[in-house]
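Re: the request from the purification team.
They wanted to know what the chain is likely to look like in 3D before they choose a buffer screen. I agreed to run a prediction and write the result into the notebook, where they can find it.
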Amino acid sequence: MSEKESAGAGPQGPPPIFRRKIATSARTRGIARPAVLRAFPDPYLSLYGDARAGPRLSRGEIHYALQQDTPSMSVLSGIFSSDMAIALGTANTLVYIRGKGIVLNEPSVVAYHVKDGKKQVLAVGEDAKLMLGRTPGTIEAIRPMRDGVIADFDSAEEMIKHFIRKVHKRTTFSKPKIIVCVPHGATPVEKRAIRQSVLSAGARRAGLIAEPIAAAIGAGMPITDPTGNMVVDIGGGTTEVAVLSLGDIVYARSVRVGGDRMDEAIISYLRRHQNLLIGESTAERIKTSIGTARMPDDGRGASMQIRGRDLLNGVPKETEINQAQVAEALAEPVQQICDAVMQALEATPPDLAADIVDRGVMLTGGGALLGDLDLSLREQTGLSISVANESLNCVALGTGKALEYEKQLRHVIDYDS
């Protein structure tokens, strides 16, 4: 085909008015030269096109540009869609947009208004979390995720839809591709439920990535090297312990212990020892304020005032709790995490175990911020334990990097199950 023919209108190339609009639209989005114009050069069109043409394209023009049979058309489609990575956690959901980073971090909570047996979404995220434990009979606030997987399919779908709409403020012409992280121990049924929820929420394609791999990438660990790396991701519902080498999992273990189990342990401890009933939000505040994995040196540590309901006479009551009591309450879930790490070390091949001795163990996730947890693990394993920078966001950052570098990491992203 001659150069003159390739520059003409019709199937060989876009007409000049299309070229001007495509170029100007690309310029407003910071793209020097859109793919469709590189594929069909036009000597009469400047690099940025005609500013008077305006940045907006009609549906027909977009369809025309995207349907051209050139290998670079996927680049142009990226202009009009915002592919994203979602860390769908038990406690919080984070959304990462390609090229923008983390744009949303909200609690995984949905509030419904129930009338005549029908549910209507009232609030999602931060607003819904404020309602937990404080709702009247007609309003129900629930967590759609439990132990890292979907417990309520409809609520999870509504929550994902809400978050996608919140970050997709502009009208788009193609649905986003979404990568979601899942616990390594999730069953095929649980994985299918997550994938189906994401597709129903408006994704054109849904990929899954194992949480330990995402956490290790987000923590900046060199997982593609032929050396052993151990990551312990302590989330709200699960703790993922994994040994990684050459970009994949050598050994992984998922235990259903995390931040939620720690909250339950604190609630149970106060019920047994002080006859005081507290809510989930109070237990979480205790954990984040004075939570510790080791008994304080002075046998007491810091203390704080808490309020709840006295189980003996049924009236509201205020009392004090100290770090020693919190350490006693959290002893069981902390020991379960330590046991999971020890079992992973026992199952690690000798050469990789030698690498882990040199490199140490990386802690990620919100649970890694529990006071003295790294010291407790160090005492039991004898290894160097470090907490990742931005440990709360590691999984979301890692899932986002998997989206950004999809070609290099395609072997760890599952689009088919």
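For the purification team: Residues 236 and 259 are 4 Å apart (CA to CA).
Please add any questions underneath this entry.
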